[in-house]
Structure formats: structure tokens, C-alpha cells
Amino acid sequence: MPSVRRTALAAVAADVVCVVAFCTIGRRSHAEGLSVSGIAETAWPFLCGTAVGWLAARGWRRPTALTPTGIVVWVCTVAVGMVLRKVTAAGTAASFIVVASVTTAVLLLGWRAVAQTVARRSGRPLRS
To answer: N or C: which end of the chain has fewer CB within 10 A?
Structure first.
């Protein structure tokens, strides 16, 4: 498998892990069940947003780039996730939007910043 393809698949996997972690932590902090179905129910709107972000940013071109890929994926994850939650009568309180925005920013942009820093320090180019 070519390096670029591996990098893109790893980046998609990292984004999915970040979104699922966000939803799992949220469910735990609100004393909701941590079953696979419960986490999936919470995560699906945000995962749809992540997919929209990847398509909109053409994330496979520069999967580890903070901009545009990371920013577009993050904004779409939150925006599409909240719209889907709203249309399915799930909670979209202002405080939740703020917490979701900040937390997903730290996760989705944070791993990209770490990956770029590690690559820079190791002296090997990162296919961003």
C-alpha cells in the first residue's frame, strides 16, 4: 500500500478514534451507559460530520495538515453533528456546543499538531 494511502487511512482512523473518545467521555461524564450501542448512538452524528469534512477538505490529499484538512474536518464534525442532533431531537444546548467545539478541536487538531511536531523533530518529512 503506498505511503500516501497509508497516511490517509491512519488519519481517518485517528479522527474516528478522537470522535468516539469524545462521545465516550461525554456519555461517562453524564452517567449514561457505555455500551457499544449507546456510544454509537451518540457518535453517529459527529462521525457523519467528520466524513463530510474529509470530503469537503479532500482530506486524502493532505491528511495530517492542520489547515485546511484539520480545520475543515473539525468545523464539519461539530456543525453537521449538531444539525443532525437537532433534527433527531437530541440535545444541542449552547453549553454543549461550546464543550463539543473545544473538545473536538483539541482532539482533531491536537493529534495533527503532535504528528507534525514529531515529524519535524525527527527530520523526516510528513506527507501532510
So the answer is: N
DSSP string for residues in 50-83: HHHHHHHHTTTTSTT-IIIIIHHHHHHHHHHHHH
Binning the chain into helix, strand and coil, the percentages to the nearest 5 are 80, 0, 20
Is 22 in contact with 100 (CB distance < 8 Å)? yes
Which residue type does 106 have? Answer: V
pTM over 0.85: yes
* Calpha distance 56→97 (Å, rounded): 21
Centroid of chain to Cα 32: 21
- Give the single-character DSSP code of 1: -
pLDDT digits (tens, 9 = 90+) for 3-45: 889 999 999 999 999 999 999 998 887 777 778 988 999 999 9
- 72: nearest Cα among 15, 13, 8: 15
